[in-house]
Amino acid sequence: NAGVMQNPRHLVRRRGQEARLRCSPMKGHSHVYWYRQLPEEGLKFMVYLQKENIIDESGMPKERFSAEFPKEGPSILRIQQVVRGDSAAYFCASSPRPLAGGSEQYFGPGTRLTVT
Amino acid sequence: AQSVAQPEDQVNVAEGNPLTVKCTYSVSGNPYLFWYVQYPNRGLQFLLKYITGDNLVKGSYGFEAEFNKSQTSFHLKKPSALVSDSALYFCAVRDILAGGGNKLTFGTGTQLKVEL
Q1: Could you tell me if B7 and B91 are in contact, meaning their C-beta atoms sit under 8 angstroms apart?
Q2: What is the pLDDT of residues B54-67, one digit of tens each?
Q3: CB proximity under 8 Å: B 79-98 to A
Q4: Which of A15, A56, B33, B92 could be a cystine partner for A48, CB 3.0 to 4.6 Å?
């Protein structure tokens, strides 16, 4: 069973460009979570999605950031008009049941975004 | 606020000796607690979790953790450390106050270094 897949693994964008980060959850997992890890910091929750629905986006910046998890295809985290402060590692996780039901989350290898 | 604290930025231990990585928590209600390990430039790997039941939880790679309600702690332990255990370890707690309780709040991480 393949793990959580993320691509690209490394992404370089100039200030003002758009960044699209993709996440394919583990087979059979319909719950997807995005986290951000800034340099020298722990992981911070951004958003929780189920198929076609955003359940909790309390950790998402109000502007420029959006996420989706369509019926078909991977989950996408989109950052518009990137700024240097967006440089970080972005991790996707998936689970077969929600965390509230006691299910652990399985993490992908991350996408390291560098904004120049 | 739901939080976990990892009081040690780094733990050094000799190979073959027992290791302990400390974690304390502050939550409302019954905690769901998790330990993850992160190797350089990799995603987080799930080690173990406490939801309910026995206070001593056994996980992957010979790791175990003890849930102590009176001390609000969930320390990670291993009887005999290996050099290959050297990595960054994160404690996490389910945040029940936001979004239906489906997000993890992570500690700042403890770097474990096992030396020959």
Answers
A1: no
A2: 999 999 999 999 99
A3: 90, 94-96, 98
A4: A56
